[in-house]
Amino acid sequence: MISEKDVEFYKENGYLLVKKVFNAEEVAEMRTALDGILQRAAESKYDRNSAWNNDFLSPEEMKKLVLKGFHDVHYQDAAFTRAAVHPNMRAVLSKLIGPNVQLHHSKMLVKPPENGAAFPMHQDQPYFPHVSHTMMAGSLHLDDADEENGCLHVIPGSHKNGPMPHVGSHFLSHKEYPISMGTPCPAEAGDVLFFNYLTVHGSNVNRSSRTRRNVLYQFRDPMDLPEKNVHVNWGQGLMICGHNPTYVEYRPDMARLEPAKA
Ligand SMILES: O=C(O)CCC(=O)C(=O)O
Fold first, then answer.
1. Which residue, 140, 160, 166, 262, has most beta carbons within 10 Å?
2. Which residues does ligand 1 sit against, CB inside 6 Å?
3. What angle do CA 111, 26, 260 make, to 5 degrees?
């Protein structure tokens, strides 16, 4: 699925867009699954707007923005378990992280038309710091994404800075790191953008008339242990490729998982 040149590109730039990881039928199945999650959330007490708060837009504009973001999608619909272990995903992950690859967590990020919320530039590392920084996102596109509907932007090579000081709730200063500083990564439905958790990234507001639906997985080498027992999720540690040499010594403290609140 990817060449040695692609692996070199990832090492140098901290990201890699892989085209056509999923075919149209698989994308259609995941869209249906995702719509089901949204529908069930809307009918439950757990529905919410997950738009990130930040001061880069006026409070009035912020209030209008919506992001439907829910974690643990592979615990909500088997389509997302199949996607995580899809042969094409495994072919890429075993080259970028491999030979052993473990799932850390999954989530969905739906930016509705006209008012889909932005993600100011940030690294993911502060949320779940690990020792060797093998952690990488695979952001699976369920819609064509471009600058109009809020595609991802990355700063090539920024992973080489190591962990950077973040302000407040884990953003970089938008004055120093505006979203426009990043390289836009337009993608088609079925493509996956892989990026290291140290790669500075973000995405703009969806101002178009089209939805932007992405499912984002985080993967790591199982030997790369967390610095803190934080961001523990259901299904954490599921093996995607190879084997787990740390199974006996290390398991996340699942007791930290909070039961769903009624
Ligand atoms: O999907 C996006 O636009 C950005 C997601 C993101 O930056 C994140 O979840 O850390």
1. 140
2. 109, 119, 124, 139, 152, 201-203, 214, 216
3. 55
CA dist 16 and 207 (Å) reads 25
β-bridge pairing 119-122 and 136-141: unpaired
Going along the chain from its start, the domains and CATH numbers come out as: 4-256 (2.60.120.620)
Helices (H) and strands (E) in the chain, counts: 5, 11
| Cβ atoms of residues 151 and 185 within 8 Å | yes
11-56 pLDDT, tens per residue? Answer: 999 999 999 999 999 999 999 999 999 999 989 877 888 887 766 7
Specify the residue with its C-alpha closest to ligand 1, atom 3. Answer: 203
Q: Ligand 1 atom closest to Cα of 202?
A: 7
